[in-house]
Amino acid sequence: MRVGLADAVGRVTAEAVWARRSSPAFDAAAMDGIAVSSAATVGASETTPLRLPPDAYDVVDTGDPLPDARDAVVMREQVHYERTPAGPVAELRAAVPPYQHVRSVGEDVAAGELLLPEGHRLRAVDVAAAAAAGAVDLLVRRAPVVAVLPTGDEIRPLGGAVEPGQIPDTNSLMLAAQAREAGCEAVVLPIEPDDPARIAAAVHAAAAESDLVLVVAGSSAGRDDYTAQVVEQAGTLVVHGVAVRPGHPVVLGLVDATPVVGCPGYPVSAALTFDIFAAPLLAALQGAAVQRRPVTRARLSRKLASVVGMDDWIRVRLGEVAGRVVATPLSRGAGVLTSLVRADGLLVVPAGTEGHQAGEDVEIDLLRGLDEIRRTIVVIGSHDLVLDLAASELRRRDPRISLASSNVGSLGGLVAVRDELCHLAGSHLLDPASGEYTLPYVDRLLAGRDVAVVRLVHREQGLIVRPGNPLGLQDVKDLTRRGVRYVNRQRGAGTRVLLDHELTRRGLSPDDVEGYAREEHTHLAVAGAVAAGRADCGLGILAAARAYALDFVPVTTEPYDLVVTAGLLDAPVLAPLWELLGSAAFRAAVEGLGGYCTEETGRRIR
Amino acid sequence: MRVGLADAVGRVTAEAVWARRSSPAFDAAAMDGIAVSSAATVGASETTPLRLPPDAYDVVDTGDPLPDARDAVVMREQVHYERTPAGPVAELRAAVPPYQHVRSVGEDVAAGELLLPEGHRLRAVDVAAAAAAGAVDLLVRRAPVVAVLPTGDEIRPLGGAVEPGQIPDTNSLMLAAQAREAGCEAVVLPIEPDDPARIAAAVHAAAAESDLVLVVAGSSAGRDDYTAQVVEQAGTLVVHGVAVRPGHPVVLGLVDATPVVGCPGYPVSAALTFDIFAAPLLAALQGAAVQRRPVTRARLSRKLASVVGMDDWIRVRLGEVAGRVVATPLSRGAGVLTSLVRADGLLVVPAGTEGHQAGEDVEIDLLRGLDEIRRTIVVIGSHDLVLDLAASELRRRDPRISLASSNVGSLGGLVAVRDELCHLAGSHLLDPASGEYTLPYVDRLLAGRDVAVVRLVHREQGLIVRPGNPLGLQDVKDLTRRGVRYVNRQRGAGTRVLLDHELTRRGLSPDDVEGYAREEHTHLAVAGAVAAGRADCGLGILAAARAYALDFVPVTTEPYDLVVTAGLLDAPVLAPLWELLGSAAFRAAVEGLGGYCTEETGRRIR
């Protein structure tokens, strides 16, 4: 199809573009000055200046066509005028070679020259160059049409009511957006129930109208997974299941000569299935090269095990610490779409590899620019909502700044500071022997290192319980009551250390607490488990209880601190954070979360 | 403004997005299998299998909600069934820990969690995650409106007639497209003549309706350059001229509180002015980080001088030779838009630097992906249209392949092979002593190196003259006739060597040829000079004469060869080219250009 130049940006050329006319189309002045005949200037010098009468030169600006009988330009700055009755006489103190400061016809494009190859994705400069070379429209390849077919009894359209057990159709929204980002038109079809006949009819209809059909979910081998069966019966099933994780229950086939991709229902699997299988296919349909992501080398912040026999696509956060890019793996769950949202890059662990050691040098496909990554504050350690609030507020103030926090517990954070894998560790580790927080651990783990500790907040820790506290839990000792189901934090988390301490103080043992072994990784996840009725109680912060409208029984107030190598205190990457901690508006927002005291916020306590 | 999720991709969040509901909203099976109560499985082992009656388990597929009273899932593969009258009894050979293979409520997003910060440019995964977390629409920042105001008496709208001395308005097309690529709305206003009052009125009107006004041309200091004056009188002139090349006559100011950028009229200057000044401003207006380009290190293929006191933005072609990325500078002319079209990267030589030596390691901002660059065939040397045709045909066959040729003359190409700066050198150097082409030069310049030479074509060289050959030029000796204006090729070009040889044979001297010192760098540029009437005659190939509908007086037939390090002959990067040279269709297309013989095309002559 032919499109006008303004509409051609982003499209792919369907034929080579040869220049029809030269640009510039005439010899033109390349400087402001006077146009002269070079032959007339022979002999001019400092000692024998040449005087040109008004009819022997023309004043020209850059871009003006060279007047007839002129073949060179003298820069304004090198001409002196003398007023005479006949008009200004120009004085030259040097001879001028032919074509000095002349932009020749065809300097940019010569007629007949190859301007753009076929299969080229057009950018702004390309269409402008085509226009200069005489094109008024361009033959471009048609944008492929992608049909997205959501299936599943439990899937509900976005925006409508979602009952328990039902799932909103976020995948179709995402896949259609990915298709549009890949330069295609996208159509989202109505949701089909788990009925192979209906799915088959919908696939046939979609295949007739589109260049690629994406069937969402039903690609696995469960009772209600019909995509492979439908493709096999309606056309040709080429592949069912690929050695890629997440995403391995992928279906690839052809129905009525149209390619069909069955995407897994887990959102990360669906997104990566598009990337790995649909995007190259769509690029090939457009006859253009698939856009590959830039890569960087990075140091892995922790050990990463991988199943041999599968390519493992690991989402990572990136930041630059001590002059090296550090990659921290995010959740590997196929259902954790936020791991893709938060990812700065992708690490592919090939099928033949068992994984990587901590500190190993790996290659990362970049999802964000390295300059943004260099302005990322890397926080590893305990989780606190104040860090989330700071991340949002820093970004609002300057869009180039990120704060990326990984929740591995306070102890893990201190280890990360030791190994130069983060800028800051969030910590609230209680030392039961001294009753002091964090500092005794710093002394032990970071002995001999010059480390600073900055107070972030004081915060209330307490029992998060269901609204109205139906079990009447008033103290940590109540956790040992029969039938009270507790939900704990992971090993190394300060809140778990706090529970252990409170139990010991009361002469109780972890074995007395039902659910002690059940681990969640954040305060919000603990509150979520209580809200869902999966547990009756968990230890956590007030703000998490509030987020889920749960009740809260205070247990203690504790300091939450940031641990940082002293040499990094003045690093430019951290300056915006220190400034933020000093802001009254930010402190007010923190107190507004509930359960926080900001009196000592920003104070260096070591 | 609030927009629906499907329309939000590419927009920038105007507020932080916090999760309103958890995703998943319920505990769900993470595997296909059976849901059980973990407590009921205590004690099961290989030696003491546990038998669960039909009412003690539920068959579940991945994603199904966990039924009441179940808290764990056993994978299908680990369950053996035994048929009984009461229904299938499930046999387990291991105890199941609580929450095994259960996807917990909030595993992806917990209600109350920060999902996306303010100022975040939304991608497909972001809107899908927002949908999963309960969002139905998002508050996004308004797209800035950019007004493009073309000015100049000589500027004509695109698509209309362009008389000699007039210039089509390609800059407005390009700047509007750049603004759209930057996520803005763009409006191109009617062209204003060089009249300060009219330009001022148009700038005021545009400022009232837009967030940024780009005034095209008139930013210099020539007679008709009014942008700075208009901005100064209508508002505040902040900057006039910046130390950036190309592009230094930039005007930056404010009119009625709207920023105004005066762009130079040279297209490369205009494009870079947008990149350097407008793009960061527009990103700031959207409150988002400007997209920075990835970078690479590269080896410079030739010396690059730069004016101290100016940042010099050099367009380069890139390719990988002998395992290293090589950067070859393109034309530095501000009017050579094709240098941006052909560029794979930008090299910024900072104001304080005098330039770089050949072979120096430099940092390049990438305009194309490194994987495409690795598949680029780098040809340095003489120019021939067959190389252009090959470039187009290779790209058509496989969009990931490029052939980049730099025209530095045959001799320069052989030096580039010697220094491992290219894969291939195009050469047609005549050795006057032996009458042989190229091989004697290879022996001298590449002595001791294992070099292969592959014939590309034989081609006719001759005198390119105006239609009808009005001066009746029949032989090289006619070039010495009084009043015949010749246009020559640059030093090191094979065609120049040929002229010298033909002159010597006839006992003539270069001094006898008017215009011998006038140099062009390609056959097409020579033909363009003749077509424009700037010269009467030039030596060149028939295809160039044909491109400009000029006449041609044959002088000789010569071989044009490709010189390559023998070790590279089998390199994968070159395989598509050798295949192409063997194709009958390609040979036919070459002969169709006129003046070519492909009888020996692809034959290795050494």
TrEMBL record, chains A, B:
Which Gene Ontology molecular function entries are recorded, alphabetically? metal ion binding; molybdopterin molybdotransferase activity
Q: Which GO terms describe its biological process?
A: Mo-molybdopterin cofactor biosynthetic process
SMART domains for the chain: MoCF_biosynth
Q: Its catalytic activity? A: adenylyl-molybdopterin + molybdate = Mo-molybdopterin + AMP + H(+)
Q: Which UniProt keywords apply?
A: Magnesium, Metal-binding, Molybdenum, Molybdenum cofactor biosynthesis, Transferase
- What Enzyme Commission number(s) appear in the record? 2.10.1.1
Enzyme class comes to transferase
Task: Extract the Pfam families matched here.
Answer: MoCF_biosynth (PF00994), MoeA_C (PF03454), MoeA_N (PF03453), PBP_like (PF12727)
**Does Transferase count among this protein's keywords?**
yes
**A single GO CC term, please?**
cytosol
Q: Is Magnesium a UniProt keyword of this protein?
A: yes
Where is each MoaB/Mog domain found? 147-284
Identify the pathway: Cofactor biosynthesis; molybdopterin biosynthesis
Transmembrane stretches in the record are: none
- Which family is this protein grouped under? Belongs to the MoeA family.
What function does the entry list? Answer: Catalyzes the insertion of molybdate into adenylated molybdopterin with the concomitant release of AMP.
Q: What is this protein called?
A: Molybdopterin molybdenumtransferase
Q: Which organism is it from?
A: Geodermatophilus ruber
